Amino acid sequence: MSTTNKYLACEQKIIFALLMMSAGMMGGYTYTVRGGVFCNAQTANVVLMSIAFGQGRFTDGLYFLIPISAYMLGAFISEALPVPIKKLRFLRWDTYLIIFEFTVLLIIGFIPLSAPNQITQVVINFIASMQYNTFRRAQGVPMATTFCTNHIRQIGVAAAKLLRKKDTEALKRGLTHLAMICCFFAGGAAVAVLSGYIPEKSIWLALVPMFIVLMRLAYADMRSEHDLLGLKPEGH
User: Fold this and answer.
1) Global pTM value
2) Do 233 and 136 meet the contact criterion of CB atoms below 8 Å apart?
3) Which three-class secondary structure state does DSSP give residue 145?
4) Using CB atoms within 10 A of its CB, is residue 196 exposed (0-12), middle (13-18) or buried (19+)?
5) 3-state secondary structure of 118
6) At a CB cut-off of 8 Å and minimum separation 6, what does 104 contact?
7) 3-state DSSP: the chain helix, strand, coil percent, rounded to 5?
8) How many CA within 13 A on the CB side of residue 218?
9) Counting Cβ atoms within 10 Å, is residue 11 exposed (0-12), middle (13-18) or buried (19+)?
């Protein structure tokens, strides 16, 4: 049995790489097209809220509770739904989530640029949170699929272990994290190029890696891993 086959389809590195690419596209999209912000994580929103409060702009600061709340709601839903969905014995929660994300990103492409940017920003906050909370480990390696901070940290850790202990496993892990960053980078760069031609619809580029993920997960759920639907992915 190969190493890959020891893990569910939703835990395989290629799935995480494709999700990183789509997340890079989402981040690039909200920054270049929808208001110059990043919606894949919430640190920036907390910082901006604290700055607004510190400067006495309380109304401006209170706005950031909306995307922060959307992110918390996404985490809550992605934590609460898998158990009842598992009882259906048809598809995994992970697959339903990708279907939902695909649909949402498709709809976002129809929202005109004249619409308030906050609509798109909050929606992407919501789906990014669910994706982050659902896909947690790639073949046993803890990973985030919506931002790069931990991947950058892990490369530094791997480099230190390689130099200090000649740890070849650390090298492999570091290279995996580097590959994830490259996928994220490629996604952001690609959507930035496309946004110059079809601004609001450039988010549809993210549907390409998302569709590949959906096909792989759906096939696994209905065919190759149907007998394993009751098995939890690592980290859950």
Assistant:
1) 0.94
2) yes
3) coil
4) exposed
5) helix
6) 123, 127
7) 70, 0, 25
8) 10
9) buried
How many residues are listed for the chain in this entry? Answer: 236
138: helix, strand or coil: strand
Domain range annotation of the chain? 12-145+187-228
Three-state DSSP state, 166: coil
DSSP 235: T
Token pair belonging to 77: 């839903």
For residue 189, give the amino acid letter.
A
Residue-by-residue pLDDT tens, the chain, 236 positions: 455 568 999 999 999 999 999 999 999 999 999 998 889 989 989 999 999 999 999 999 999 999 999 999 999 999 999 999 998 989 999 999 999 999 999 999 999 999 999 999 999 999 999 999 999 999 999 999 999 999 999 999 999 999 998 888 889 999 999 999 999 999 999 999 999 999 999 999 999 999 999 999 999 999 999 999 989 898 88
